[in-house]
Design brief:
The chain is mainly alpha-helical. The protein contains 20 helices and no strands. It has helices at residues 3-14, 18-26, 30-42, 48-61, 74-82, 103-110, 115-123, 127-135, 139-150, 157-171, 178-193, 197-210, 212-217, 250-259, 265-272, 277-284, 289-298, 301-312, 319-338, 347-352. It starts with a helix and ends with a helix.
Length: 353
């Protein structure tokens, strides 16, 4: 397939709805489809005249047989006449599932991809996560990805969805869902906090020999690379005076969580901005709508939009996970209070501290 034909296919797909674009790509061979996807990502502003000529030629030929081109199902031409070219946005921003991906895993995948693909994916990550991914990629690849990011144009949703689908297929089996892992980390933290100091240090040292990243995720030994909680603070060791042990009554944590309702906006923002979206979704499930709206008003617009959509359709959740998430929010509040960054005045918090 010639470069001219590749460009025509890319222009055509950029005008299609999701279903038609996917159907067209599926008719191509893997190598050709990859070339077209790359061309789509590199398309600059298309002259209106050229776009109209490509569409007219496609509908005129139907299954056309232009030499060096690709034969497409004639039904696609009919659908173009019937369907609107507008493409609806998804429920979540592109690549949202990568929020909890380990930077090393993502870097290892992207360095084998086309630099344009790497640029597109990295541009949709949070700045901190993007920096961690770039740091773990070869210098020449990370530099090229940054250069391409600077000149990225808005891509057709069908292209973003296609790239996202491929990455999901490759990486999702290697990732663990944050909602599932939340309870596991909370349980390990609870067990460790119940162990005497010297014995706990011994356990942590042995654990670090086998899984140093897990130790960091538990809050020991520095900032975690990518945890389900996505701390934006340097988490200190768990406080001996306030831990969520397996025998602690959940009612206490629920009462403490409700005490957060009385915080002023500044302190409330500091506490909830330190937690990740998955933790917030769990912690705010079933909470008074007035308080939830207040939280949404304190978060950055993009995060608030994602959180609102996730809360609307949270899916099946376990009560235990909700309680663990609320305990995690309370723990963050204690951590910030211990640093003097927020003020906890209530009797419940004072008694706990």
């Amino acid at each position: 397939m010639t470069n001219s034909a590749i460009r025509k296919a890319a222009i055509l797909i950029s005008t299609l709805d999701n279903a038609s674009g996917d159907a067209l790509l599926e008719q191509m061979g893997p190598e050709t489809a990859e070339r077209v996807r790359n061309a789509l990502m590199e398309l600059e502003e298309i002259p209106e005249g050229e776009q109209q000529r490509v569409i007219a030629d496609f509908m005129l030929r139907g299954s056309g047989g232009e030499e060096g081109g690709v034969e497409f199902d004639p039904a696609l031409a009919r659908r173009m006449e019937e369907d609107s070219p507008a493409i609806a946005d998804g429920n979540e921003p592109p690549f949202q599932f990568l929020r909890n991906a380990e930077p090393s895993l993502l870097a290892a995948y992207l360095e084998k991809e086309h630099p344009q693909t790497a640029a597109v994916v990295i541009s949709h990550l949070a700045p901190e996560q993007a920096a961690q991914v770039l740091e773990q990629m070869p210098p020449e690849i990370s530099t090229e990805a940054l250069r391409r990011m600077a000149w990225l144009d808005e891509l057709a949703p069908v292209v973003l969805r296609d790239v996202e689908r491929e990455i999901k297929t490759a990486l999702l089996p290697k990732m663990r869902r944050p909602e599932t892992r939340l309870a596991g980390l909370a349980s390990v933290q609870a067990v460790l906090s119940a162990v005497q100091g010297s014995r706990r240090n011994e356990l942590l040292n042995r654990l670090a020999e086998q899984d140093q990243q897990l130790v960091r995720q538990l809050g020991y030994g520095g900032r975690p690379e990518a945890t389900p909680f996505q701390y934006r603070l340097e988490p200190p060791p768990l406080l001996e005076t306030h831990v969520c042990t397996p025998t602690q009554e959940f009612e206490t944590a629920a009462e403490e969580f409700e005490e957060l309702f009385s915080l002023d906006d500044r302190d409330l923002r500091r506490v909830f901005a330190a937690a990740s979206i998955p933790v917030l979704v769990l912690a705010l499930t079933g909470v008074d709508e007035k308080f939830t709206r207040r939280i949404l008003g304190q978060l950055p617009a993009r995060e608030a939009d994602v959180l609102k959509k996730r809360l609307t359709h949270p899916g099946p959740l376990r009560l235990r996970d909700i309680e663990n998430a609320q305990q995690e929010i309370v723990r963050l509040a204690h951590m910030l209070a211990g640093r003097g960054e927020i003020n906890l005045n209530s009797r419940t918090f004072v008694a706990a501290v």
